[in-house]
Every structure is written in structure tokens, then in C-alpha cells.
Amino acid sequence: xxEPLKTxxxxxxxxxxxxxxxxxxxxxxxxxxxxxxxxxxxxLYSLFHVYITFFPMPTLLQRSIHVAAGCALxxxxxxxxxxxxxxxxxxxxxxxxxxxxxxxGYLIWQYDAIMTVRGGIPNTLDIVFSMITxxxxxxxxxxxxxxxxxxxxxxxxxxxxxxHMDFMPDRLLTRPYDLGDIxxxxxxxxxxxxxxxxxxxxxxxxxxxxxxxxxxxxxxxxLFNDMALALAGHKQGGPAKVAVISSGxxxxxxxxxxxNVVGTGAFTIPLMKKIGYHRDFAxxxxxxxxxxxxxxxxxxxxxxxxxxxxxxxxxxxIALAALLPALLYYLGVIAQVHFRAGKRDLKxxxxxxxxxxxxxxxxxxxxxxxxxALVVMLAESVPVGYAAAYTIAIxxxxxxLRPQTRMGWRDILAALEDGAKQSLSVMAACVVVGIVIGVVxxxxxxxxxxxxxxTLGAGSLFFxxxxxxxxxxxxxxxxxxIPAYIITATxxxxxLASFDVPVLVAHMFVFYFGIFANITPPxxxxxxxxxxxxxxxxxxxxxxxxxxxxxxxxVPFMFVYNPNMLMIDVAGTAVTATEFPLPHWWxxxxxxxxxxxxxxxxxxxxxxxxxxxxxxxxRLPLAAGGLMMIVPELTTDLxxxxxxxxxxxxNIWAAKKQIKAA
Length: 662
What we know:
Helix content is 72%, strand content 0%. It has helices at 13-20, 32-54, 59-77, 91-117, 124-145, 148-162, 179-187, 196-217, 220-232, 238-254, 257-275, 279-292, 303-311, 315-344, 357-364, 369-379, 384-399, 409-422, 424-442, 445-456, 461-478, 481-491, 493-497, 503-516, 525-534, 538-548, 550-561, 585-607, 616-630, 634-661.
């Protein structure tokens, strides 16, 4: 990049990442033998997942091996505490390493006896290894995600031990459960530790994380940055638009909001500050754009695969349903960025200092082919696991087309190792949340929670949605987005079924709000990371992020009331349906146009600028008109169009008067 693109030195990115992302606190081992052991296990771990895609093992066995090897890697890579020495693997971590493999080893040894002779009824040894495995996964999750998720799982694990006691509320009373009931549920069935959540991790999520690792090794991050710079860098407020575009691309692939903020923000935030954006706003732009990647097709981070596994709805249907809401979210962010730049007269980067799109595509544009191939395969209903595996192979082959991207054997092995390591946090979250799923399936807790939410909602869909939103956001503040989604989908989403909300719509609703907790104060980790890089105030950055993400908080309510926004037609379908036809093409077009205009109007009202400043007395009706256009109903659309046209017409007229006066 040429001289004008150089910026002031950003704060230490790794230090910020470790402060807000527990997953980044890893060992830096000096012993080369241990490093080779970790590398070898990681490469074999990746190859195992490619193998079982085409030659699957019994479900319980492949899930247990996935968990065992993943936990073993965690004990070698992650220290027991942040302040522990990171230079070596302490002796007791080798004991944890052995214990991690013991659970899967025992299931492999005793599989036939468990399935046929004992019929899933646990004996003493089964219970012992179940308890060992439970302790292992809780400790592994603590190391890589922090304390909150393990403590949450332990609270649920305690419930069946005390659920029959006199001090429990009547609604929560159950029959007594013994050790065999509880740990047999967790260990010997696919309804506990090895639930559908870990099933999605082993069959879908791992391969897509591995695909992301191969893309990264081929220079995809550089391609996204350069494309964003070429497309938007010279525009009004260009660096902020570059941040939105590049972070959206990367966030869709890796799904790691905090890591994405630090990775792309180290480049984009100093550029935003340099052209005049306030540091709090610059950090918020990066945070809101990075978080939104998890709702952006085609990959959508990882939770979308769990949604497909949980609901039975095809992944391609979920991705299509997510498309318009995701585009509206990013349109809202980029519109506010644009209007803020207009209000403060912030210019872009001179074109002479930017890469040219033609040159960028010539050098690295061929690396978009694997993503195109993935979309085509998913659209053609190729099984998701196969599509991911084929796309990895396509990525390697396509990388050989240019010397800048060509992957050699070392790059391939490094990508296999990277993918395995990057998958560990997802694996740990999925297996520990399996404790919650196991307890809910064993007891009546899920039914009680569902009825409680409906009761508190007082028979009102809106209040039930509001309570579900609050529950999702509270869980999301303390938990990674994947376990937050799984827990709310298990306990809160069923409450919406009593209002005839289709299963896909209900799950998409809780999915959104679990993700946006990353930018919701008081615990807004993505926003705090952005503030750390920008040198801004964490809480102010969090509230700026909320404002930028405003469309993301409104649209979920809208698609519940009219699922046409998700490009599905629910007329005449059952609440539990997993197949949805497309609405009529005109319905899709009209919903898209009115929603886009509504989001733009709402963004202009929030920033108080369109062609010129919008007076305070005009901002409220403009926002109201924008909201009415987002609501997919003809009457509200017509009223909204009239209100928006009137206010924006006045604004354009005022801008012309100012130009003439000047």
C-alpha cells in the first residue's frame, strides 16, 4: 500500500484480543517435540473429519472421538489459567490429555455391549467413564471459553439431583433420578454430551472452519481488504465503508466476532480515525460489522449449521431465509456511516492511493471461485458435508492458478492444523451445552420454561417475543453465540410455537438476538475490543454499536409477523414444517424495496442527515415512516411512503436552497 495509507501504530492487537477473547490465550511452547505432537494430532484431527464425511462411523463413536481429540488438544494448547506459564505443558495436563481420550476409548471398546447386551442401560463402569468425560469437557470448556458456560452447565447438571426435594417450587418438582439415569443420559445416548449440537460440529461446522482456514492460507483476507478498498475506499467516509464490507465478508466465513474486530480493525480503525471519524464511532463500526457476519450467507459462522440440524430445515433454505434480513442489517450500518460522513464532511482516500479493482481481481479474484462453487452446490442440494469437503479441494486447486495464492504442501498442512485449532472453541461450547440439552430432555425443565414464558407473555405474541429477546440477549452477554442460541432454541423458541410461529422463524428470531449480545452493553465484548483498538470509551462504543445495529433489532420482529421477509411462504404449512415454498416473486420484490427504503429512512433519521441536516421535528416522523415501510403490510407501506417522501422532499429542497445561497 502506498504512503498515504500508513496510519498511526495501533495498540497491541494480541493483548486486546486476549483481554476480550478467552480463546486467544494459548501457549507459546518452546519444546519442539510437544509442538510437533500438537501439530500431528491437529492434522490427523482434520483428516479424520474429511474421512468420516465419506465413510461415516456409528454416530455415537464419531461424536465421541471428535470430542476426545478436541479436548486433548485443548489441554495441550491452553494453559489452566491466563496467568499460568505458557512456555510448557505441565505434568497434570498430560493426565487431562489421557483422560480426554479415555471416554472415547471406552465407548469404542464397549460399544457393542452397550448397544446390544445392555440396551443403553448403564453399569458401574459406564457411569464412571461418563463422570470422567463430563469433568473433562467442563474443564476443557472452562479453559477455552471462560467460567460462565461451565458454571451454567453445572447448574443444570445439579437440577436432576435436587429436583425431587421438598424445597423445590411445585412447577420444578420431578421424580428422583439416580446416577445411572443422569450420566447414562449424558454419555450413552445422543441426547446429552453427544447431542445434535456436537453432531453439527462434527459433520458440518468443522469442515466449514477448515474451509475458512484454507481460504486464509491462500490469502483470502487480503483479497477481501483490497476489494473493499477498491470498491469503497474513495467514497465519502470510505474507510468506514471498507470496514463494513471487509468485516462482513470475513465474519461470514469465520463467525468469530471479537477475533474479526481485532483482525480487520487493526487496519480499518486507524484509517477511520485518520479521515475524521470519532474513535468511539470507529470502534463501533468495526464491532457492528463483525458481529453481523454471523447472519450473512453463505456460511454464517457456525450456528446456522446447528439450526439446520436442530430444526430439520435444509441449510440452503436457512441461508436463503437469512439473506434479506442480513442485507438490511448491513445496509443500515453502511447508511449510517455514509450519513455521518456527509454530516461531518468526511472524505474518502484518494483513488491514486488505492488498489484498482481490475488488478485486485486479476491477482486474487480466482479465489472467489470456491465460494461460488459452494453456493452452487448448496443450491443444488448437495449434502452440506460433501459440499464443504469438495470446496476445500477446489480451494487448493484454484490456488494454483496464481503464484500469489499458490498453496504448497506446507501451506496445506498448516491449513489442516489451523482448522483443527480454530474448531476447538466451537466443539467445547457444543459439547458442554449438551449437558443442558441432556437435562432438559431427561426432565420436564424445558416444558416448564416454555409454559412460564407463555404465561409471562400474558397471551400476547409481542410480549412473548420481547421476553424471548431479553432472554436471548442476557444469555448472549455471558455465553458464546453458539451455546446461547442452542439454549434459547431449546427453551424459549418452543414458546413461540403456541402462537403458530413456524419453527424456522422462531429459531431465526432467537439466533439474531443471541448474536447481537456481543454489542449490547454492559457486556459487549466485540464493542469493547473495538474500543481497545480505537482508544475509545468501551461503554460509549457499545451504545454507538447498538445504534448502528438498529435495523438488526427491528427486522426480527418484522419477519415474525410476516415471514415473507425471510423469502418463505408459510400459508397452509404446519408450525413444525421443515419445507417452505418461495412466495410469489412480486411479494419478494415489494418486500425488498419497501424494506430497503425503510432502513435507509430510519438511518437518515438516526443520524439527522440526508442531503443536508434534518431538523429535530422532522426526524421523528421520518423514523416512523421508515419503520412503517419495514413492516411488510400494504397499508403501513403506503402511509410510510407518504411520510418518507414528504420529509426527504423537504430535505432535498433545503439542500438545493443551501447550494444556491452559497
